[in-house]
Design goal:
alpha/beta; Zinc Finger, Delta Prime, domain 3; 5-stranded parallel beta sheet; 15 helices; 56% helix
Length: 334
């Protein structure tokens, strides 16, 4: 048994943390970095639970039955302090001073350690990070700090230098799809599309799949792309108007288009074997008659539209231009 049993993927990370727990060589501070939905919070929780357990196993994993474990599951263990942003509000210096620095100086109530979980540490203000740095430089022997952040976030180098930085990797699309399908009962094809869209983040894939509009938008995008086969400008405009109904999902629409062309390219270069577990997608890809050059042009148009939208361009106009370019590259009708 391991403290990290049941977490999909991340074998090297689970092994590294498991060894530290088993040998009692725990760092005073961790920085868990990973993209959205990869399980940073789950790793932080599992590690924290093991650290405050009153009767850990030989491998350092939590027993699950002691009073400290029960309080942890209930969400009110006094030896686990959680700090995270309140919506779009950053974590301020006063919160770090009151809830972290001051609490760190107080001995644990029952456990051998007191654990501080700071989610989205990159959302701390510079002043808050500098306040935390003072405690990280001279940490109390009983305190363990677990910070989570996305790669490339605004975590100061001085904070990083005081933490053991660990990468929380995304899992493969198919691993994520199998897990999501089993957990939700969704069909594998839908789960795989959500997993690919989440880029290996299981949590993100679950949220995507729970969004009823995701399937609706996906079907609309596929219909719009399929309808470009020799389409008249009026039809392209109609497709663009239809997609503009999802104005808050412009980046998702562009990514769906890009994934479609990526699948087409893989189908042409590798063959149908990769798509045997998705018969619906295989049928769509088999029916497509684009050349490789046209596929690459379509993917380029999608990538260009995505870049423009991220720079603040009008989403509806960017998608409309994308469709016109795709239609033009296919059939020279624009």
């Amino acid at each position: 048994m391991s403290a990290f049993d049941g977490i999909i993927g991340g074998e090297r990370l689970k092994a590294a943390l498991g060894r530290q727990l088993a040998y009692g060589r725990v760092s005073h501070a961790y920085l868990l970095e990973g993209t959205a939905g990869t399980g940073k919070a789950l790793y932080a929780d599992r590690l924290a639970k093991a650290l405050v357990c009153l009767a850990p196993g030989e491998d350092g994993s939590a027993c699950g039955v002691c009073s400290s474990c029960a309080l942890f599951v209930a969400g009110n263990n006094p030896d686990v302090i959680r700090v995270q942003p309140d919506g779009a509000k950053l974590i301020g210096v006063d919160e770090i001073r009151e809830r972290v620095n001051r609490e760190a100086s107080v001995t644990p109530y029952a456990a051998a350690r007191k654990v501080f979980i700071i989610r989205r540490a990159d959302a701390m203000t510079p002043a808050a990070q500098n306040a935390l740095l003072k405690t990280l430089e001279e940490p109390p022997g009983h305190a363990v700090f677990i910070l989570t952040a996305r790669p490339g976030g605004a975590v100061l180098p001085t904070i990083r230098s005081r933490c053991q930085t660990l990468n929380v990797p995304p899992v493969s699309d198919r691993e994520a799809a199998r897990f999501v399908s089993e957990k939700t009962g969704a069909d594998y094809s839908s789960a795989l599309e959500a997993a690919r869209f989440a880029r290996g983040g299981i949590g993100a894939a679950l949220r995507i799949l729970a969004n009823e509009r995701f399937s609706e938008i996906s079907e609309t995008v596929r219909g719009a792309l399929a309808g470009l086969g020799g389409a008249d400008i009026v039809d392209v405009y109609a497709a663009a108007r239809k997609l503009s109904e999802y104005k808050d999902s412009a980046e998702e629409i562009v990514l769906m288009a890009l994934l479609w062309y990526t699948d087409l390219l893989e189908f042409r270069r590798i063959g149908p074997e990769r798509f045997m577990d998705r018969p619906g997608r295989l049928g769509d890809l088999s029916a497509c008659r684009l050349t490789e050059s046209q596929i690459l042009s379509g993917a380029e148009a999608a990538a260009e539209a995505g870049a423009k939208i991220r720079r603040g361009a009008n989403p509806a106009l960017s998608i409309e231009i994308m469709l016109y370019k795709m239609n033009d590259e296919r059939f020279g009708k624009v």
